């Protein structure tokens, strides 16, 4: 099966066997969170027990596809991350628990507990030889902050000249209805987040597997960053949406190179 730069309108559990073992550089998985969301199917409507059982099943199905140097990011909520992280830790090295702070504005919220405003992301590696390119994701200082840090002991430090190393708290605003990036999908992730994973954890030309493509954010990030993708998505409407998103991206690229030529 040719799987490079393809998105299969298929259940990950039935389609994954068509990918060769040891062929994937990076897996970015953003599964349903067991919150009852409507994805045009029942995938987010399992009981907690069923959800954990299903999670372990798809994780077992995708992990053999990774190369020895491969990594795995998984988006979850605080509610199920303890069980699922513990499970993955029996198979992989856990490198980070990343907190995505969705920058939710303060406006009321929960009244009998603290308002939850983050997603939990697990970052795992298959071996100690995992690929990681820190320089591609350094965060440059603005001129003012850079100036404030210019004590003599800091001069020439890579973090000062080229940017600091990202921390495990990632603050990126969720995609609002008015955002030009916004697609007709209830839980679309911001490109900024996926770009950071793709750049840090896959080499140029590498292959990224997304078992739950949704609106196709991983595919768009791969095309923008010179990587290849393979993906699965149950809902045929989302598959059409992804195709359209990719077509638009390619059209805009052609327009840009045409404009540069004239
Ligand atoms: C949280 S969303 C992914 C959002 C995506 N990261 C984005 O940025 O648009 C999860 C997606 O997984 C799909 N899905 C659920 N169960 C699936 C399965 N067994 N196989 C393939 N796709 C599935 C849902 O239809 C939904 O679109």
Walk me through this protein's architecture:
With 262 residues, this protein is of the alpha/beta class. It has one domain: Vaccinia Virus protein VP39 (Rossmann fold). The chain is built from 8 helices and 8 strands; from the N terminus they run βαβαβαββααβαβαβα. The protein has helices spanning 12-15, 48-62, 81-89, 143-148, 158-161, 191-201, 217-224, 236-261; strands at residues 6-8, 24-29, 66-76, 93-101, 118-125, 169-171, 207-210, 228-232. The longest helix is centred in the C-terminal third of the chain and has 26 residues, at 236-261. The relative contact order is 0.18. The site of S-adenosylmethionine has 22 residues, from helix 1. S-adenosylmethionine binds at residues 11-13, 30-32, 39, 41, 43, 185, 187-189, 212, 214-215, 217, 232-235, 238.
């Amino acid at each position: 099966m040719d799987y490079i730069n393809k998105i299969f309108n298929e259940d990950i559990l039935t389609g994954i066997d068509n990918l060769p073992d040891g062929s994937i550089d990076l897996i970015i998985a953003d599964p349903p969170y067991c919150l009852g969301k409507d994805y045009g199917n029942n995938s987010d409507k399992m009981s907690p027990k069923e959800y954990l059982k299903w999670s372990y099943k798809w994780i077992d199905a995708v992990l053999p596809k990774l190369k020895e140097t491969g990594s795995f990011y998984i988006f979850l909520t605080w509610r199920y991350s303890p069980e699922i992280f513990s499970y993955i830790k029996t198979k992989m090295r856990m490198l980070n628990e990343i907190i995505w702070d969705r920058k939710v504005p303060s406006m009321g919220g929960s009244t009998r507990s603290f308002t939850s405003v983050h997603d939990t992301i697990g970052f795992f590696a298959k071996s100690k030889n995992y690929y990681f390119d820190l320089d591609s994701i350094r965060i440059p200082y603005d001129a003012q902050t850079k100036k404030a840090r210019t004590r003599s002991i800091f001069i020439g430090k890579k973090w000062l000249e080229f940017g600091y190393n990202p921390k495990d708290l990632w603050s990126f605003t969720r995609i609002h209805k008015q955002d030009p990036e916004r697609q007709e999908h209830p839980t679309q992730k911001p490109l900024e987040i996926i770009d950071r994973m793709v750049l840090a954890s896959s080499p140029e030309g590498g292959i990224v597997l997304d078992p739950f493509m949704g609106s196709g954010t991983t595919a768009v990030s791969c095309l923008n960053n010179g990587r290849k993708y393979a993906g699965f998505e149950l809902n045929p409407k989302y598959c059409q949406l992804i195709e359209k998103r990719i077509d638009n991206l390619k059209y805009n690229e052609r327009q840009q190179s045409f404009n540069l030529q004239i």
